[in-house]
Write a structure and sequence with these properties.
342 residues; alpha/beta; TIM Barrel; 7-stranded parallel beta sheet; 11 helices; 9 strands; 14% strand
Length: 342
């Protein structure tokens, strides 16, 4: 199969049409899925969702924050005497899809790519609960976030007639796993994978998914770090083993850079990838394209990835481009195009 490129989600552009046209103009022949660019309030991932909870009748602000760092984000608690239900949580995915879906259809037709699939980013339910409520309350109230996420997936699947792939985005899971000592990681990976695959089980029959493992990119700074690729391998393998047979897993995207931290050049960092076991037909997308690595360095990393996996990897940045300026985003697009063609 020819090497493909991938865009995680956000693109610094004025609106969805500008973002999609920029992506198609730079990477069109190599893309298999196309996001809407997550422009405007959505450029900072779940920032806009959590800010919207300031007016939620069942939530009270427990700690304010200005989003300047990971420990300076707003934190909420459930109001005394209230209970969270999925039906009372609105993450805004459906209105965004309703606006972008017709634009995607038009751009796809104009670029002559009837095979291209609409890509919708879906933050993991545990991640949303953790960033909203903190770790203890997140476990207590996770079910509401799960129900709300599944409801939005079902509505978008119906809107697009199944012509959509849902990219489940899980920075908390990978970061938590990477922070554990290696002997504890296999058991933790199985527990974390169950939460991810439960979303797929509850999705409509025939729904298609991708998995975006992430190390965070708030203000273009990482939330987590890895000493080698072993946490990626453990979590991806655990998800693949549990994945329901009647829901298609199309790709796994893994970060090898982390926000402003470029991907390592040490071959030992990538060696655990030899143990990755994805089913046939599941693409592995390597998030290593970074503006602070030269073309030769990126070709070196690509060769390491290909060798350990035994097949050509698809290429991407480690996360969305929305936290970069336009020049850096353009550099990533140009580098991605070069790395799929040479």
């Amino acid at each position: 199969m020819p090497r493909s490129s991938h865009l995680v989600g956000s693109i610094p552009a004025a609106d969805a049409e500008a973002a999609m046209r920029l992506a198609m103009g730079r990477l069109g022949p190599t893309l298999r899925t196309l996001p809407d660019g997550e422009t405007g309030d959505r450029r900072n991932w779940i920032h806009y969702i959590i800010e919207g909870f300031r007016d939620h009748p069942d939530l009270v602000l427990a700690r304010d924050g200005d989003w300047s760092d990971y420990d300076r984000t707003p934190r909420f608690r459930v109001r005394a005497g209230r209970r969270l239900f999925g039906a009372n949580l609105d993450f805004g995915y459906m209105p965004a899809a309703e606006r972008s879906w017709p634009v995607f259809q038009r751009v796809r037709q104009q670029f002559g790519r009837p095979d291209l699939t609409f890509q919708v980013g879906v933050p993991g339910d545990l991640d949303l609960a953790l960033f909203t409520l903190g770790p203890v309350a997140a476990l207590r109230h996770r079910r509401a976030f799960t129900e709300a996420t599944i409801a939005e997936v079902r509505r978008i699947h119906a809107l697009c007639g199944g012509d959509v792939v849902f990219q489940v985005e899980v920075p908390a899971e990978l970061t938590l796993l990477a922070r554990l000592p290696p002997p504890a990681q296999p058991v933790a990976a199985r527990l974390l994978a169950k939460g991810v695959t439960d979303l797929a089980v509850a999705a409509p029959h025939g729904a298609r998914f991708g998995l975006h493992l992430c190390l965070g990119d708030l203000n273009h700074r990482p939330f987590g770090a890895m000493t080698d690729a072993a946490p990626v391998v453990r979590l991806a393998n655990a998800v693949a083993r549990r994945w329901p047979v009647d829901r298609r897993l199309q790709f796994v995207h893994a970060p090898f850079a982390a926000a402003d931290q470029p991907p390592p050049l040490d071959p030992a960092f990538y060696a655990p990838l030899a143990r990755l076991r994805l089913p046939a037909g599941v693409r592995f997308i390597a998030g290593f394209v970074h503006e602070d690595r030269s073309p030769d360095q990126q070709r070196h990393i690509r060769a390491l990835l290909d060798r350990h996996l035994g097949r050509p990897v698809d290429v991407a940045a480690a996360c969305g481009l929305g936290r970069r300026d336009a020049a850096a985003a353009e550099a990533i697009l140009e580098q991605s195009a070069a790395l799929t063609s040479d």
